Amino acid sequence: MCSRDCCSGQTGKPGNSCADKKKGKGLSDEEKIVPTPQSLLYPYEVIQEIADFIVKGSGMRPRIGIICGSGLGSLADIIQDAKVFEYEKIPNFPVSTVEGHAGKLVVGNLEGACVMAMQGRFHFYEGYPLAKCSMPVRVMKLCGVEYLFATNAAGGINPKYMVGDIMLMHDHVNMLGFAGNSPLQGPNDPRFGPRFPALVNSYNKDLINKALEIGKAMGIESNMHVGVYSCLGGPTYETIAELKALRLMGVDAVGMSTVHEVITARHCDMKVFAFSLITNKCSIEYDDKRDQEANHEEVMAVAKNRQKACCELVSRLIREIHAMPPSGTQAAKTGV
């Protein structure tokens, strides 16, 4: 706390008064903290450097990017002719710290298509700003990716949802955005996208409909839903009051990821398909039973049991996309 002697200049030491400190006088370079806008944490040139490293190291330009949610890293394990990059060995790349996130980037072929998959994402609750959490999406874009597949483990708020169900996301409620936190904060670089991107049709309707057809062919249509997802900051699971509020807002499932990645993907004009694996039912009634409390071990166990169905759904949808002609931009990037 400031004292009377401090601001009246009685300390006798220049640079020690509150007024001097506010002006930066008497402070070392380490003590002068200048906030950096999120969008400047990874400028275009740094993203391009990371993308060039991956393209050169893999010898491939992927068309589809996949972000594997908690316990769903097996999606990357089915990639053939895979080139694996550990996050810590990729220049300027963060490191995932959460169990169930291997921390590897895998580039290879799946159902005839060239894909890149993240085995482990970055979360706001790990201490990373949203721009850093979403940075790999921009790397994917500069590698040539047109489609983003984002998966997550989520708690089911909709009472019709059962553990093990798959919810195809057709919209989201951005709770972090309500608090003024966005991966697009700071100066906008038009090389990525516009200053004010629209998010009305963030989730590709054609891909959702195709996934529903695939689910029916797989015989899992009774375990599939189309719903609204919301991302909270974590790492705590939600209170009863918070879950009730989210349900009143029309939210069907809640987690701690994906939304800021989708925002970043849409900002740079990528087509998005996303789904939540419902790993626990959220209780919206007050109860003293501890077995109603969500826990990470349960999330991992359910994801492991349902990984085969999730992998098949993604594989079949990628097969459909591979049959579609690439866009002009991607066609121009076929050379490595």
TrEMBL record:
Source organism superkingdom: Eukaryota
UniProt KW keywords: Glycosyltransferase, Transferase
Record lineage: Eukaryota, Metazoa, Ecdysozoa, Arthropoda, Hexapoda
Keyword Kinase: no
NCBIfam families attached to this UniProt entry: PNPH, PNPH-PUNA-XAPA, PRK08202.1
Organism in which the protein naturally occurs: Drosophila lebanonensis
EC number(s) per entry: 2.4.2.1
Enzyme class, first EC level, given as a word: transferase
The reaction(s) this protein catalyses: 2'-deoxyguanosine + phosphate = 2-deoxy-alpha-D-ribose 1-phosphate + guanine; guanosine + phosphate = alpha-D-ribose 1-phosphate + guanine; inosine + phosphate = alpha-D-ribose 1-phosphate + hypoxanthine; 2'-deoxyinosine + phosphate = 2-deoxy-alpha-D-ribose 1-phosphate + hypoxanthine
Domain Nucleoside phosphorylase: 63-319
Pfam family, one: PNP_UDP_1
GO molecular function annotation: purine-nucleoside phosphorylase activity
Pathway: Purine metabolism; purine nucleoside salvage
Region spans: Disordered: 1-24
GO biological processes: nucleoside metabolic process
Residues annotated as signal peptide: none
Membership in a protein family: Belongs to the PNP/MTAP phosphorylase family.
UniProt keyword annotation of Transferase present: yes
The protein's name: Purine nucleoside phosphorylase
GO cellular component, one term: cytoplasm
